[in-house]
Amino acid sequence: MFPDTDSSQTIIDCFLNEARRKKVELRLLSKVLDFENSDDGWLVRLENEEIRTSKLLIATGSDKHIWERLKAMSLDIIEPVPSLFTFHIEDSALQGLTGTPFPEIVVRTKGLQSRGPGLITHWGMSGPGVLKLSAFGARVFFEKDYCFDINVDWLPRFSESDIINELKTEQASNPKKKVRNFTPLGLSKRFWEFICNKSQVSEHQNWSETGKKHFKRITESLKKMSFEVNGKSTFKDEFVTAGGISLEEVDPKTFQSIKYSGLYFAGEVLDIDAVTGGFNFQAAWTGGWHVASSI
């Protein structure tokens, strides 16, 4: 769901206004150096002062310093790995298609599969279909050092026979026309030329010169094109981290630590990650609501 303004500032303002209404004090530029359990609750050490509190909520996302501190308190931390990243593919022909969108693609790799919109970028492939696969395989891809092969079905809505029938119909109707002047199944001309290059269809080849072997190559290029992924890419840092405080450490109703009374967690500091950023926001805000209700 998006606000009518289509601006993230609206969401920020919503939370800030609610905080003011509830008289929540915000301490900016106040780095937390340490925190520890004390006889009367929790002691939080800032750079210039100490704060004592009976309840402490940690919602620091994938902050390694905080995770190390929690490890020292004997809390189980699931080793964090990046999730929701795009695939880096070194293919000059693919990079020539930068900005080409697809309403739906299927991406597969060794037992994993994802379906959704796709986007060709100057570094490889992105879009929800790719991001979902990165979430499903976050630990697998981490173990492979982000070097693995994928197969892409550019047209999952069409079967192989649908594609061959489309090609045969065009061949019968326009035998003297060049294959490359055709743009089937809603594909862009630029992408169709890319498919022709991958399928060894020559620049001046007519339909009358195109036979079963070309049909097979074109169909395989559209339904089973393979790429070698050699790294992950993001605009800045990873959108999401898989891993964090084990869910076995928290009460699912209150998000309170089972080992430490008055200690709560919400957001990505927990071992929670979803297939899109929106679901991760929702998980964080829902966790925050349960913690606030409990406190």
- Helix and strand pattern: HEEEEHEEHEEEHHEHHHEEEH
Q: What is the approximate shape?
A: elongated
Instruction: Provide the low-confidence segments as ranges.
Output: none
Q: Taking all residues together, what is the mean pLDDT?
A: 92
What does this structure look like?
- The strands form 4 sheets. A 6-stranded antiparallel β-barrel has the order 6-9-8-7-10-11. Strands 1-2-3 form a 3-stranded antiparallel beta sheet, with no helix packed on it.
- It starts with 7 loop residues before the first helix and ends with a helix.
- It folds into 3 domains: 8-82 and 241-294, 3-Layer(bba) Sandwich (FAD/NAD(P)-binding domain), CATH 3.50.50; 83-156 and 226-233, Translation factors (Elongation Factor Tu (Ef-tu), domain 3, Beta Barrel), CATH 2.40.30; 160-223, Orthogonal Bundle (Helicase, Ruva Protein, domain 3), CATH 1.10.8.
- The longest helix has 18 residues, at 277-294.
- It has helices at 8-21, 64-72, 92-95, 128-136, 138-143, 160-173, 189-198, 212-223, 277-294; strands at residues 32-38, 41-46, 50-53, 56-58, 77-83, 86-89, 101-109, 112-120, 124-126, 147-153, 225-233, 240-245, 263-265.
- It is elongated, with a radius of gyration of 26 Å.
- The protein contains 9 helices and 13 strands.
Tag the structure with descriptive keywords:
13 strands, 3-stranded antiparallel sheet, 9 helices, Helicase, Ruva Protein, domain 3, Elongation Factor Tu (Ef-tu), domain 3, FAD/NAD(P)-binding domain, alpha+beta, 6-stranded antiparallel β-barrel, 295 residues
